[in-house]
Write a structure and sequence with these properties.
Length: 454
């Protein structure tokens, strides 16, 4: 991104400011407005790990690492019981068939969620790329398995069929890559892997697919200097084809998380419990345990729509975005429970989006009198997100009404009566509403206009 500064004494001369490859400069870049306004994104973890698609109280996408690197007994036993003794992880790739993968169908399902953007796996730590990467040779989706450009197909469908922003996840490291492990053994004094594998791949996906989000991961072992992260991000912000729109995260090295980069992730399923000074994101999963699809999951291991909305309400009230993950099957299907949750989120946002999209945190994030109440605000209104439907009276301590205050329920036409509480706050009278007049099934948003303390 360029910021043009017009000098006061020379109003007709504008200077284009370029970001330098250091964190002080890169961290000064303003966040593109579309990201904060959108609030909800969909994460998609997909790769060869979708073939074994099992996780034993753990993530399925880490299958290879658990089996061969960490040597977890449950994974070793699974392979001994179901596969021949000389079976290698690479043998799974031929069964990554994707025969039912229809990018246009995915685009419709993803768009139905009401999200503003998606983040799709270009490469996980297994090293397999979902595009015909020049650095992955025979370990990519064109060479083995699908024989197609998975990233390209989805990117095209998202851009032509929806208004979603298209983003890509890319893992810096690869668990069992010998070049990486040699650099690691050398205590990062050599950079053969990062120079020949990671850095070229990052430039390649940005130039080829023009993602509006570059979500980096695999930052737990090497510092940002090993990955040459600041040089890449400076190019991304200054000269890349997405320099004005692109959003990055904070996973660019061991010295970055919750400190350097774009939006802060700080850790998976991050929920800080208080308002943050920097834009942040709660990257979380519908499957309570795994990011990739698990064949051995049962229904209790998936978050309900009520749980998802409770997490979403808290996240947005504290100024965050929620990145909600699904994992497709090896055949390329989004299983019904994931599709249902996506469509339920979209149904809810169709009614309640006014109280979510484009909002800012209020001075009070939650109510001290009644539990399960979260707040957002716009210039002219405060929105109370109510997790449990109130009976008779909804008592709130935080909002202070004025004589011109009005209270309404998003998706419902009639205004609500209210009285000022003797000490502080407001009592909202809840009339009986027929079930067929209720605007939504779960989590309701009350709009409070013209408050004294907006």
């Amino acid at each position: 991104m360029y910021i043009k500064i017009c000098l006061f004494l020379l109003p007709f001369i504008c200077v284009a400011v370029r970001y330098k490859p250091n964190w002080n400069s890169l961290n000064s870049r303003p966040l593109p407005a579309w990201y904060d306004e959108g609030k909800l994104g969909i994460f998609i973890h997909w790769g060869v790990f979708a073939v074994p698609s099992v996780g034993f109280n753990s993530e399925s996408e880490w299958f290879w690492n658990y089996w061969k690197n960490l040597k977890v007994p449950s994974y070793i036993e699974f392979m001994e019981n179901h596969y021949r003794p000389d079976f290698m992880y690479a043998d799974f790739a031929k069964d990554f068939t994707t025969e039912f993968y229809d990018a246009n169908q995915w685009a419709e399902i993803l768009n139905s969620s009401g999200a503003a953007y998606i983040v799709f796996t270009s490469k996980h730590a297994e090293g397999y790329t979902n595009w015909p990467s020049s650095t992955a040779f025979n370990w990519n989706s064109m060479a083995v398995g699908p024989k197609r450009d998975i990233v390209g197909e989805l990117g095209e469908a998202i851009r032509t069929k929806t208004n979603l922003h298209f983003g890509l996840y890319h893992c810096l490291y690869e668990w069992l890559n010998p070049l990486y492990n040699q650099d690691k053994a050398n205590n990062w004094t050599t950079s053969q892997f990062s120079r020949t594998k990671t850095t070229p791949a990052l430039y390649e996906i940005v130039k080829r697919y023009k993602p509006h989000i570059v979500w980096s991961d695999g930052d737990a072992e090497a510092p940002a200097s090993y990955w040459n992260s600041t040089t890449f991000i400076a190019w991304l912000y200054n000269d890349s084809p997405v320099k004005d729109e692109v959003v990055t995260n904070d996973r660019w090295g061991t010295d970055c998380k919750c400190k350097n980069g774009g939006v802060w992730t700080c850790g998976d399923r991050y929920q800080p419990g208080k308002l943050q000074p920097h834009k942040w994101v709660n990257a979380m999963t519908i499957d309570r345990q795994s990011w990739g699809y698990r064949r051995n999951a049962d229904s209790s291991q998936y978050l309900s729509i009520e749980e998802l909305l409770a997490t979403f309400a808290e996240t947005v009230s504290f100024g965050g975005n929620m990145l909600m993950n699904i994992g497709p099957t090896k055949e390329g299907t989004i299983v019904p429970i994931f599709e249902e949750r996506l469509r339920q989120m979209g149904q809810w946002l169709n009614v309640n989006g006014e109280g979510i999209r484009g909002t800012k945190p209020w001075s009070k994030q939650n109510d001290t009198l009644t539990s399960g109440i979260w707040y957002t605000k716009k210039v002219d209104a405060v929105y109370a997100i109510v997790l449990t439907w109130p009976t008779d009276i909804l008592s709130l301590a935080a909002p202070i009404p004025s004589s011109s205050t009005t209270v309404s329920l998003l998706g419902y036409t009639e205004k609500f009566q209210w009285t000022r509480r003797p000490s502080s706050g407001i009592d909202i009278q809840i009339p009986p509403i027929p079930f067929n007049k209720m605007p939504c099934k779960w989590t309701w948003i009350f709009k409070l206009s013209n408050l004294e303390n907006i």
